[in-house]
Design goal:
By secondary structure, the protein is mostly helical. The chain contains 17 helices and no strands.
Length: 380
Amino acid sequence: MIHRKSFENDYDHFWSLSPQERNRADGSLVALFFVMLAMGTQFVDLPSPEEKEQTAEFYIGVSASHQALRMFSYLGRPSMRSIQTMVLITYFLMNDNHASDAWAFAGILQRQAYAIGLNRDPSIVNPSATPQEMQQRRKVWQAVFIQDTFLSVIIKLPPTATHTDVRIEDLFEEKDASLEHGATDTAFIRSMWSLASLAQGTICTPRSLDHAICQDSAERARLVARFQRIYRSLPLPFRTFNETAMCELARRSRRLARQTLFLTSNYYHCLMLIHADEHESLPCDVKSTMEAAHEAISSFFLFHTIFDGEAGVWFHFQHRAFSEALIIAELVKNQPPGSNMDPMYLGAKTDILKMVGILQLNSELDIVARTRVAVLSNYL
């Protein structure tokens, strides 16, 4: 979403200015500095959780970043840079367990994105722009779009990034964006974009209205097949999913390992929701739901194994895993008589215990983790 070289140049230039010149600098740039510092602080180990929270919230909770945006008059002067800042602020709020605040702030963000036409194909609305400028607009729009869609999946509220003619296929590979075997940053963006595009209309919208995702088993099978086609189209490294392979992948490229686990988690979470959907005309597909939930929550377990402390920061990942554990627990609770030794249910109970164990690591200091431990423990 942020062009690294351009940002580094802006950063170096800012600090080369005199104090008087810095006082007159672009407020949205200063806001971007502060929110990046705040995001970084969430991933830094400090002596105590209180110190970590206070340090992070100095940059944003005590409103350094937001104040800089206000000085820039961001509500009346939306720009690419202010929108980049707002995307990061929204992620910060989610990671800080302020999901309601994040949802409200993301609503302003979405209006701002529409106001500057980020949702429009840049080759149509700004044909004189350079290819790199068009690329950057597409990348910022996808950041807004993906954030909105998967937040909607989690909290079952209506998606708002719904009106766009920006095309995934117009993203081009960048010269310095190479990971391995076709798994570039651009390929990751395309993959998440494709998944979000399908999830928005088929999962987010019906769930936000308490409607059925599918009307019958045939429609469910067709929808599952659509998600599977997207997954099969991903570059091979993004479909590498077992503990040994992921640990080896993380050894070569931690960035690629993160991307793979995020994609895997979102994909299987969507499948789980489709299979778990039930109403009078369509029962829950217990076996498929359990299998998808196991794969989804296993990606969280792997993330915790490989990246340790990071797993406790990413709201999306944590909340999805808790939702998966809840669905697994509910299915185990209602398992048919005589199935206690069924390997599927035994494995499901292991997943619940493992999730509780991970949550307990932070339960003394984190009230959200403590509450989730209590909820899951009622099923054990």
